Amino acid sequence: MDNQMTRRQGRENAFLLAFAQTFGELPLEQALEDNRAYDDERPVDDFGASLLRAYYDHSAEVDDQIRAHLRGWTMERIPRVTITVLRLAIAEMLYGAEHKPGVAINEAVELVKKYGAEEDYQFVNGLLGSVARESGLADEETGAQEAPAQL
């Protein structure tokens, strides 16, 4: 990597690798190693790798958070892009080193706007806002609206 990438780019590259991982069974560390060796266009930096590890280390808890905030939906019905964004954002909010839920929520909304279905950003914003509030992480900076988590 030539220059240090922005946090936004680090999140996006981590998302792209996490999304690719939903199609295969490659262990995370091998996927990270392969990414760094072969993907000059979208390398996952240390920040992105820490987000991925936070999710993989706490995947059961993260998925439990998602299930707890779904209203009339199952995880299996959520589009793959959206569930991947949710998983990384919740891992960042609850287990990441920086503990900036507002940033994690806003970045997740931007990712799902870029890669997801047209209206999924509202669902992501509402669900992540609920997780932040119920986890005691919400403040004026979260940007999350009081919206039910429905697609």
TrEMBL record:
Signal sequence coordinates: none
Keywords, in A-Z order: RNA-binding, Transcription, Transcription antitermination, Transcription regulation
Tree of life domain: Bacteria
GO cellular component: a single term: cytosol
Family membership: Belongs to the NusB family.
HAMAP family listed in its UniProt record: NusB (MF_00073)
Name of the protein in question: Transcription antitermination protein NusB
Source organism of this protein record: Candidatus Faecalibacterium faecipullorum
